[in-house]
Amino acid sequence: MKPRKTKYLKKVLKKKSFQSFPEKNHHQFYYLVVDGKKESVYTYFSHGKSEYDKKLMGAIKHQLKFPTSKDAENYFDCPMSGDQYVELLREIGVLPPKGDDK
Is 96 helix (H, G, I), strand (E, B) or coil? Predict the structure, then answer.
């Protein structure tokens, strides 16, 4: 995955159903929120990091449960909407099917 500016990553996450939660241990956490419910899918950012290199982008890909790097690139380059991302997570079993109250 290509390197990206931290500010850009946060902007995309907020635009696509992620919310920032209070920091823990000098990290800012972003959790996926679907239908008002905080899900188990999250990533976090360290203060002082202005850009995430390939290695850290790989870690974000893993944390956000993308099956492929191409899916992650599509998400951050914006062809994939937040709704499409949630549907992808449902298809691969990370989130329960729509209407399934677990």
Answer: coil
With H, G, I as helix, E, B as strand and everything else as coil, classify residue 58: helix
pTM: 0.89
Q: For residue 96, tell me if it sits in a domain.
A: no
On whether residue 72 sits in a domain, the answer given is: yes
Place of tokens 């099956």: 67
Segment 27-53, tens digit of pLDDT: 889 999 999 999 999 999 987 788 999
Would you state the torsion angle of the CA atoms of residues 18, 23, 25, 27, taken in this order, to the nearest 10 degrees?
A: 50
Residue 101 falls inside a structural domain: no
Q: Is residue 99 part of a domain?
A: no
> 21 with 29: CB under 8 angstroms?
yes
